[in-house]
Design brief:
By secondary structure, the protein is an all-alpha fold. It is built from five helices and no strands. The relative contact order is 0.11. This is Ion channel. InterPro entries: K_chnl_dom (IPR013099).
């Protein structure tokens, strides 16, 4: 059975598809946040913390690569890109928040105040969005280095990942349009790729 392209669906089918996509994106964000608030993060800061951080960044890159591949073969690449952002962005933010929390618990004077889970997430979001209210600030060298790394990573993610996702969407849309069975007909009745036999 062949799948219908988005533009060939009825308005009701389009609405169902959009709602299902948004529900999947919302469920992904909810699961990631629930995991952040439920996993134990009270172990001491050590080499395992940094190995976990690097593995988390690698997992983020793998998720983005997998999502780009999924966008390229999708019949609804724009909706698929929304899901990619809904999975990738919270994953990256929660990775940094978890690390800030571990630093704060291991060395409470690393920030201007001791961080709880919500405080660490709040700090992460303010750094990522470059709002920087200043109510929570990194004080230790380690906290400042990680904060600078997050700033640079945020710029790369917003620029590079957005470009990659947008490029994947555009490629998928072009592929979908080229596979479309309905072709334009020239004013003289010939198909555009038909040879001129006059």
């Amino acid at each position: 059975m062949t799948r219908k392209h988005y533009d060939k669906l009825t308005p009701a089918a389009r609405k169902r598809l959009v709602v299902a996509s948004l529900l999947r994106a919302g469920a992904s964000v909810t699961l990631l946040v629930l995991a952040y608030y439920s996993i134990p993060l009270d172990r001491p800061l050590n080499a395992a913390t940094w190995i976990g951080f690097v593995l988390g960044l690698a997992a983020f890159a793998a998720v983005i690569a997998w999502q780009v591949r999924a966008i390229l073969v999708s019949d609804v690449p724009r909706l698929r890109a929304i899901q990619a952002v809904a999975i990738g962005l919270p994953m990256l933010l929660l990775l940094f928040a978890s690390t800030y929390l571990r630093i704060s618990r291991d060395a409470p004077d690393s920030f201007s105040e001791a961080l709880g889970r919500t405080d660490a997430l709040y700090f992460t979001v303010t750094v990522f969005t470059t709002v920087g209210f200043g109510d929570i600030a990194p004080r230790s060298e380690l906290a400042r280095i990680l904060t600078m790394f997050q700033m640079i990573t945020g710029l790369v993610v917003v620029g590079l990942v957005a470009k990659v996702l947008l490029g994947a969407v555009q490629t998928a849309v072009r592929r979908r349009e080229s596979e479309s069975p309905a072709r334009a007909v020239a004013p003289d009745g010939r198909k555009p790729d038909a040879p001129d036999r006059r």
